[in-house]
Amino acid sequence: MAAAATSVWRRGAMLYRSAVHLQHTVRRVSKSSDRGWFDSLFVHKVDARKDAHSNLLSKKETSNLYKIQFHNVKPECLEAYNSLEAEVQNRLHQDPDYPCEVVGSWNTWYGEQDQAVHLWRYKGGFPALTECLEKLNKNQEYLAFRRERAKMLISRRNQLLLEFSFWNEPLPRQGPNIYEMRTYHLKPGTMIEWGNHWARAIKYRQDNSEAVGGFFSQIGDLYVVHHLWAYESLQSREETRNSAWLKEGWDVNVYYTVPLIRSMESRIMIPTKNSPLQ
Predict the structure, then answer these.
(1) 3-class DSSP state for residue 218?
(2) Rounded CA gap, 163 and 151, in Å?
(3) What are the strands, taking DSSP E only, across the chain?
(4) What is the fold of 58-271?
(5) Would you say residue 103 has pLDDT above 90?
(6) Domain limits of the chain?
């Protein structure tokens, strides 16, 4: 009887020690997990990039560099400004010594008012840009034009851009069209992710030939993307954009790209008379 009682007591003691050991083990694991979770708030492992996003996302078959200009014009001077700008653009187009061309020129219709937007292409990249600027700075007629134009402006700014490899080449087109420039200011470090999503998403926006060109900034405001679209009218724009939501996969692109954006802006623009994009 005594031996049986002793055996029961020993088994109970062993179970108690096992339970205590298990409890301590759980506490250690829990504390370790808590530390891992806490540390993860401050330590984020990122795979090293092997190249600049400009090399990974831009067209390899061309060495084109783009410049976009935003000119805020005095309201009473807009008509005179457009005439003067068209004259200078035509001269540069006709002179083969200048390795630049106007892709498109517009006046903002909805968005910032009394604004002119110009998109230039430099065939040959940064060397072509440098060559062009050096020649223009020695061109007395051009310097006189700049002085006259300055009298008409409130402010101006520009950016140097590269074009996304998966977007259409911006080529001259017949009108009449209205153009929308959608500008996205991205969170730093998200350009590759943006490009990966849009490389798949652009196929959803090709049915009506509305995609004109897609660009990302190199100099000026950084992590900025410009998407340029053409529509027959504002009604056509609404119908075209709504139809994209009916295609399986477009909603996924929107879902994953919206968190990458810090801010965004839309301009509706009317091409000037001499713009290659009408």
Answers:
(1) strand
(2) 33
(3) 64-73, 100-110, 115-123, 153-163, 178-186, 211-219, 224-231, 261-271
(4) Alpha-Beta Plaits (3.30.70)
(5) yes
(6) 58-271
